[in-house]
Amino acid sequence: MAIMRWNPLRELENLNREVSRLFNDYNMPFTGTEPSTDFLTGTWTPRVDIYEDENKIVVSTALPGMDQKDIKVNIDKNMLTISGARKLRNEDKKDNYTRIEQFYGSFTRSFTLPGTVNQEGVNAKMEHGVLEITLPKKEEAKPKMIEVKVH
Description:
- The protein is mainly β.
- It has a domain of 98 residues: Immunoglobulin-like.
- The chain has 1 helix and 9 strands, in the order αβββββββββ.
- The chain is flat.
């Protein structure tokens, strides 16, 4: 039996190989760029884009393959909540799939709204698989131009 010198990098390579094997066993690529998911409970988290201008805040999220009836948008006590569920098509034949990479199951995203949002004027629309929620700002929150007079 030969004595081998311990190499900590070899341990990291083994760990990397085992983690890759684990994800390959599930036929699920993992690059760190996918929305997070929990394989055990069937929940996932769609990513959102949020941008703001002087008149509104817009929350946008891609939900391809989902119907409007499967998505709920709710505002309660300055908390915006987006929730829903994406169902696997042809669930009775899912054993015939050779690869499933899309996320299925329920999701919930919640965001605390600033006090500048006019909750009465909130609008949500779904177009081409993208949910866009427009949150208008209150008039007093909008910037005002003040003219400076020179004497």
